[in-house]
Amino acid sequence: MGLSQTLLFYVLVCVHLGVSQHYLRLRPSPSDHLPVPDLKEDPDPEYDPREQDLTERTLRKKLGSNFDPNFMSITSPIILNFSEPDNQVKLQGPMPNEIKKLDLTETPYGGRIKVGKKARRKFLQWLWTYTHCPVVHTWKDLGVRFWPRYIKEGNCFSERSCSFPEGMSCKPAKSINKIFLRWYCQGFLRQKYCTWIQVQYPIISECKCSC
Protein backbone atom coordinates (compact mmCIF):
# COMPACT_ATOMS: atom_id res chain seq x y z
CA MET A 1 0.00 0.00 0.00
CA GLY A 2 1.39 3.40 -1.02
CA LEU A 3 1.24 6.58 1.02
CA SER A 4 -1.80 7.87 -0.92
CA GLN A 5 -3.72 4.65 -0.28
CA THR A 6 -2.82 4.77 3.40
CA LEU A 7 -4.06 8.34 3.66
CA LEU A 8 -7.25 7.30 1.87
CA PHE A 9 -7.71 4.57 4.46
CA TYR A 10 -7.46 7.15 7.24
CA VAL A 11 -9.95 9.46 5.54
CA LEU A 12 -12.45 6.64 5.07
CA VAL A 13 -12.06 5.59 8.70
CA CYS A 14 -12.56 9.14 9.94
CA VAL A 15 -15.61 9.74 7.74
CA HIS A 16 -17.20 6.34 8.16
CA LEU A 17 -16.68 6.02 11.89
CA GLY A 18 -16.61 9.66 12.87
CA VAL A 19 -20.12 10.59 11.71
CA SER A 20 -21.77 9.29 14.86
CA GLN A 21 -18.74 8.71 17.09
CA HIS A 22 -17.57 12.31 17.08
CA TYR A 23 -14.75 11.68 19.55
CA LEU A 24 -12.98 9.37 17.10
CA ARG A 25 -9.89 10.93 15.55
CA LEU A 26 -6.33 9.95 14.64
CA ARG A 27 -3.17 11.19 16.30
CA PRO A 28 -0.24 12.47 14.19
CA SER A 29 2.03 9.59 13.27
CA PRO A 30 5.65 9.47 12.03
CA SER A 31 7.19 6.89 9.68
CA ASP A 32 5.02 7.60 6.63
CA HIS A 33 1.84 7.05 8.64
CA LEU A 34 2.51 3.38 9.35
CA PRO A 35 1.98 1.61 11.64
CA VAL A 36 -1.56 2.90 12.08
CA PRO A 37 -1.72 5.32 15.03
CA ASP A 38 -4.05 4.66 17.95
CA LEU A 39 -7.65 5.74 17.54
CA LYS A 40 -9.02 8.10 20.16
CA GLU A 41 -12.38 6.62 21.05
CA ASP A 42 -15.47 8.06 22.69
CA PRO A 43 -15.03 6.89 26.31
CA ASP A 44 -18.79 6.39 26.77
CA PRO A 45 -19.36 2.62 27.36
CA GLU A 46 -22.73 3.02 25.62
CA TYR A 47 -20.75 2.71 22.38
CA ASP A 48 -19.18 -0.61 23.42
CA PRO A 49 -20.54 -3.94 22.16
CA ARG A 50 -22.62 -5.86 24.72
CA GLU A 51 -21.85 -9.40 25.83
CA GLN A 52 -24.42 -10.82 23.39
CA ASP A 53 -22.66 -8.92 20.56
CA LEU A 54 -19.38 -10.74 21.25
CA THR A 55 -20.43 -14.31 20.51
CA GLU A 56 -17.32 -15.87 18.98
CA ARG A 57 -19.20 -18.27 16.68
CA THR A 58 -21.25 -15.44 15.16
CA LEU A 59 -18.26 -13.13 14.71
CA ARG A 60 -16.11 -15.87 13.17
CA LYS A 61 -18.88 -16.51 10.66
CA LYS A 62 -19.13 -12.80 9.88
CA LEU A 63 -15.37 -12.46 9.38
CA GLY A 64 -15.17 -15.74 7.43
CA SER A 65 -11.93 -16.60 5.68
CA ASN A 66 -10.48 -13.20 6.61
CA PHE A 67 -9.62 -14.54 10.07
CA ASP A 68 -5.83 -14.94 10.08
CA PRO A 69 -4.45 -16.46 13.31
CA ASN A 70 -0.94 -15.39 12.27
CA PHE A 71 -1.86 -11.72 12.64
CA MET A 72 -4.91 -11.65 14.91
CA SER A 73 -5.95 -13.16 18.22
CA ILE A 74 -9.18 -13.27 20.21
CA THR A 75 -7.45 -13.67 23.59
CA SER A 76 -4.44 -11.74 24.87
CA PRO A 77 -1.35 -13.13 23.11
CA ILE A 78 0.96 -11.30 25.54
CA ILE A 79 0.37 -14.07 28.06
CA LEU A 80 0.72 -16.82 25.47
CA ASN A 81 3.74 -15.43 23.62
CA PHE A 82 5.52 -12.57 25.35
CA SER A 83 8.60 -12.58 23.12
CA GLU A 84 8.44 -12.83 19.34
CA PRO A 85 11.36 -14.52 17.54
CA ASP A 86 10.73 -12.10 14.65
CA ASN A 87 12.34 -9.39 16.77
CA GLN A 88 15.70 -10.95 15.99
CA VAL A 89 17.52 -10.04 12.77
CA LYS A 90 16.99 -12.73 10.16
CA LEU A 91 18.64 -12.60 6.75
CA GLN A 92 16.31 -14.27 4.28
CA GLY A 93 16.73 -14.92 0.59
CA PRO A 94 19.79 -14.16 -1.55
CA MET A 95 22.18 -11.31 -0.82
CA PRO A 96 21.04 -8.07 -2.54
CA ASN A 97 22.83 -7.41 -5.85
CA GLU A 98 23.90 -3.91 -4.80
CA ILE A 99 25.94 -5.50 -1.99
CA LYS A 100 27.05 -8.61 -3.86
CA LYS A 101 28.48 -6.56 -6.76
CA LEU A 102 30.46 -4.10 -4.63
CA ASP A 103 34.00 -3.63 -5.86
CA LEU A 104 36.18 -3.70 -2.75
CA THR A 105 39.46 -3.56 -4.66
CA GLU A 106 39.14 0.02 -5.94
CA THR A 107 40.07 2.88 -3.62
CA PRO A 108 38.54 6.40 -3.72
CA TYR A 109 41.83 7.72 -5.14
CA GLY A 110 41.95 5.40 -8.15
CA GLY A 111 44.33 2.85 -6.71
CA ARG A 112 43.59 -0.82 -6.19
CA ILE A 113 44.05 -3.13 -3.23
CA LYS A 114 44.00 -6.88 -2.98
CA VAL A 115 41.14 -8.44 -1.01
CA GLY A 116 41.03 -12.17 -0.39
CA LYS A 117 37.86 -14.16 -1.11
CA LYS A 118 37.31 -15.05 2.54
CA ALA A 119 37.79 -11.46 3.74
CA ARG A 120 35.48 -10.17 0.98
CA ARG A 121 32.78 -12.70 1.86
CA LYS A 122 32.95 -11.82 5.56
CA PHE A 123 32.82 -8.08 4.91
CA LEU A 124 29.84 -8.36 2.55
CA GLN A 125 28.02 -10.55 5.06
CA TRP A 126 28.66 -7.98 7.79
CA LEU A 127 27.48 -5.15 5.51
CA TRP A 128 24.31 -7.06 4.62
CA THR A 129 23.56 -7.68 8.29
CA TYR A 130 24.28 -4.04 9.20
CA THR A 131 22.06 -2.55 6.48
CA HIS A 132 19.29 -5.14 6.77
CA CYS A 133 15.91 -3.75 7.88
CA PRO A 134 13.85 -6.47 9.56
CA VAL A 135 10.16 -6.14 10.34
CA VAL A 136 9.71 -6.29 14.12
CA HIS A 137 6.36 -7.78 15.11
CA THR A 138 4.56 -6.84 18.32
CA TRP A 139 1.04 -7.54 19.53
CA LYS A 140 -1.32 -4.58 19.95
CA ASP A 141 -4.64 -4.39 21.75
CA LEU A 142 -7.13 -2.56 19.51
CA GLY A 143 -9.81 -2.50 22.21
CA VAL A 144 -13.23 -4.04 22.60
CA ARG A 145 -14.62 -2.24 19.54
CA PHE A 146 -12.49 -4.35 17.20
CA TRP A 147 -12.78 -8.10 16.66
CA PRO A 148 -10.48 -9.86 17.04
CA ARG A 149 -9.19 -7.18 19.39
CA TYR A 150 -5.50 -8.19 19.17
CA ILE A 151 -3.40 -7.57 16.06
CA LYS A 152 0.23 -8.42 15.33
CA GLU A 153 1.64 -5.20 13.92
CA GLY A 154 4.83 -4.73 11.96
CA ASN A 155 7.35 -2.03 12.84
CA CYS A 156 10.65 -1.11 11.23
CA PHE A 157 13.77 -1.69 13.33
CA SER A 158 14.88 1.77 14.48
CA GLU A 159 17.42 1.31 17.28
CA ARG A 160 20.30 2.48 15.05
CA SER A 161 21.11 3.80 11.60
CA CYS A 162 21.05 1.18 8.84
CA SER A 163 23.69 2.84 6.66
CA PHE A 164 27.47 3.03 6.71
CA PRO A 165 28.39 5.79 7.32
CA GLU A 166 25.33 6.59 9.47
CA GLY A 167 22.49 8.81 8.31
CA MET A 168 19.82 6.55 6.80
CA SER A 169 17.16 4.64 8.70
CA CYS A 170 14.75 1.74 8.22
CA LYS A 171 11.38 2.87 6.85
CA PRO A 172 8.20 1.10 5.67
CA ALA A 173 8.42 -0.13 2.07
CA LYS A 174 5.42 -2.45 1.69
CA SER A 175 2.27 -3.31 3.60
CA ILE A 176 -0.49 -5.88 3.57
CA ASN A 177 -4.14 -5.46 4.53
CA LYS A 178 -5.92 -7.55 7.16
CA ILE A 179 -9.67 -7.39 7.56
CA PHE A 180 -11.12 -6.95 11.04
CA LEU A 181 -14.62 -6.34 12.39
CA ARG A 182 -15.30 -2.87 13.77
CA TRP A 183 -18.21 -2.04 16.10
CA TYR A 184 -19.93 0.88 14.37
CA CYS A 185 -22.74 3.00 15.85
CA GLN A 186 -25.03 5.48 14.12
CA GLY A 187 -27.02 8.02 16.09
CA PHE A 188 -26.72 8.84 19.78
CA LEU A 189 -27.67 7.13 23.04
CA ARG A 190 -31.14 5.52 22.83
CA GLN A 191 -31.54 6.57 19.19
CA LYS A 192 -28.39 4.79 18.08
CA TYR A 193 -28.04 1.65 15.98
CA CYS A 194 -24.86 -0.43 16.25
CA THR A 195 -23.49 -3.32 14.22
CA TRP A 196 -20.23 -4.99 13.19
CA ILE A 197 -18.71 -3.88 9.87
CA GLN A 198 -15.59 -5.08 8.07
CA VAL A 199 -12.62 -2.67 7.90
CA GLN A 200 -9.18 -3.03 6.32
CA TYR A 201 -6.18 -2.59 8.59
CA PRO A 202 -2.76 -2.06 6.90
CA ILE A 203 0.26 -3.80 8.43
CA ILE A 204 3.91 -3.16 7.54
CA SER A 205 5.27 -6.21 5.71
CA GLU A 206 8.64 -4.92 4.46
CA CYS A 207 11.13 -2.27 5.52
CA LYS A 208 14.02 -0.73 3.58
CA CYS A 209 17.02 1.41 4.43
CA SER A 210 16.35 4.90 3.05
CA CYS A 211 16.83 8.62 3.70
Keywords, separated by commas or semicolons:
3-stranded antiparallel sheet; Cystine Knot Cytokines, subunit B; 211 residues; alpha+beta; 22% helix
Brief summary:
The chain has about 210 residues and is an alpha+beta fold. It contains 5 helices and 8 strands, in the order αββαβαααβββββ.
Can you walk through the features of this model?
There is one protein chain. This protein is of the alpha+beta class and 211 residues long. The protein has a domain at 43-74 and 132-210: Cystine Knot Cytokines, subunit B (Ribbon). Helix content is 22%, strand content 27%. It contains 5 helices and 8 strands. The protein has helices spanning 3-18, 56-63, 77-80, 97-100, 117-131; strands at residues 25-26, 39-40, 72-73, 135-141, 146-147, 150-156, 169-186, 193-210. The strands form 3 sheets. It has a 3-stranded antiparallel β-sheet, with no helix packed on it. A 3-stranded antiparallel β-sheet has the order 5-7-8. The chain has a two-stranded antiparallel sheet with strand order 1-2. Strand 7 and strand 8 (193-210) form a beta hairpin.
